[in-house]
Amino acid sequence: MKTLIVICTAIILITSGSSFADNLKYSKQDIRTLSKQFLKATDIKNPVFADVDNDGDFDMLKFTKAGFVEFHKNTGSNSDPVFILENKKFDDYEVNSLFGAGLPFPVFMADSDGDGDEDLFAITGKVTAAGSNVEIVENTFEVSQYLLITIILVLGIIALLIFIL
Question: How far apart are the first and last CA of the chain?
């Protein structure tokens, strides 16, 4: 459950800042091929890869033990990634994972079905020359659900204020 909170934090971080202008579609095989190159390009354990700056290549996020998210910009390309630390305090999160400050495995955030929202690709197996195991979790959370949650919270706060006063 606590791992899910950290992964959801990563999803919210990425989806809130992305414009999805390109709507590139990635398959399980695409991520399997890219994972070897990207994980070889860094020594950070279990990073999150996503196009944070919307320039068409995957950047890297690192969840630190201090509760911050570091943004490492990809100054290379998807075929030859080069990561430069851009912002040590890109965002923050609550450290409440069973696995410490990191995720239990590397994660790619990319659109797997061309619907305009980023889905979760988790690299669950060891990355070898032959490839790696990749699992996909489809993002079905829609903007309309955010609006509904906001309305319910606002109505709840108003009801509490009326009750208190």
Answer: 37
Cα(27)–Cα(4) distance, integer angstroms:
23
Residues 104 and 3 sit within 8 Å (Cβ to Cβ): yes
What is the DSSP-derived secondary structure letter of residue 130? T
Can you list the pairs that 116-124 forms with residues at least 24 positions away whose Cβ atoms lie under 8 Å? 116/20, 116/23, 117/15, 117/20, 117/141, 118/11, 118/14, 118/15, 118/18, 118/20, 118/50, 120/7, 120/11, 121/26, 121/28, 121/31, 123/31, 123/35, 123/39
Question: The pTM is what?
Answer: 0.66
All residue ranges of the chain with pLDDT < 70 are: 1-23, 95-103, 127-132, 141-145
